[in-house]
Specification:
The chain is 55% helix and 23% strand. By secondary structure, it is α+β, with helices and mostly antiparallel strands. It has a three-stranded antiparallel beta sheet.
Length: 257
């Protein structure tokens, strides 16, 4: 009778010990940290990776991931500095650098970071003009990352990168931008054409100056032209004559009359 009672008590203690061990041993992964609350008070240092023992039920362990989280910021209706209504969405990359702060300073750091990214995106993009948002995205991204990183630093969160993914522009504004781009291309084409004409006129003026100083050069030019015509095997041969020779013939014929 006594032996049976002792056996039952021993078995009960063993079961209680196994239950305690089962609830006290935690395996923390390499990319996690374990925040321990002991009787409601947070221990100053989080548990590292590996096998960790806590005092159940005095201690309560919460796992916090240290890997980079990807946050998709939904499209936000924004009015730019030049009064253009656009929709802007972005993606935010951040990670927890202090597990204790991430658990104690904010109730849900994922939701809080998401809401902060949305409000920051609306307020910051509204400070830029549409052309700056489209052409200077790196500047906008850097400013967003800087503001978010400063605001989440007290939560133990490090914002590593923020990228504006897409800017949706109204259809009428798209047509206006297309017309502006077309006009800009036409302006550049006219400028290039005018520059070409100017350079060609300069070269022609230089050539005329050389021919004026060296009259024999025009004869060499005639022979070169005949050679080019002969290569093409044409049946018609053109002999170019200077205008001054023709004018002299006209004057001589007029004098004879």
């Amino acid at each position: 009778m006594n032996l049976d009672f002792f056996t039952i008590v021993t078995l009960g203690f063993v079961l209680i010990f196994l239950f305690w061990i089962f609830n006290s041993i935690y395996v923390i992964k390499e990319w996690e940290r374990g925040v321990v609350l002991r009787l409601g008070r947070m221990l100053p240092h989080a548990k590292g990776a590996g096998l960790q023992l806590v005092l159940y039920p005095i201690d309560k362990l919460t796992r916090i991931s240290l890997r980079i989280e990807t946050l998709d910021v939904p499209p936000q209706d924004v009015i730019t500095r030049d009064n253009v209504s656009v929709k802007v969405n972005a993606v935010c990359y951040f990670r927890v650098v202090d597990a204790n702060l991430a658990l104690s300073q904010v109730q849900n750091y994922l939701y809080a970071t998401s809401q902060l990214a949305q409000t920051t995106l609306r307020s910051l993009v509204g400070q830029f003009e549409l052309d700056s948002i489209l052409s200077e995205r790196e500047k906008v991204n850097a400013k967003l990352q800087q503001i978010l990183d400063q605001d989440t630093e007290s939560w133990g969160i490090k914002v590593t990168k923020v990228e504006v993914k897409q800017v949706d522009i109204p259809e009428n504004m798209q047509r206006a931008i297309a017309k502006q781009a077309e006009a800009e291309r036409e302006r550049r084409a006219k400028i290039i054409h005018a520059e070409g004409e100017f350079e060609a006129s300069q070269k022609l003026a230089d050539a005329a100056e050389v021919l004026e100083k060296q009259p024999a050069a025009i004869q060499l030019r005639y022979l070169q032209t005949l050679t080019e015509i002969g290569v093409e095997k044409n049946t018609t041969i053109v002999f170019p004559l200077p205008v001054d020779i023709i004018s002299q013939w006209v004057k001589a014929f007029a004098e004879k009359k």
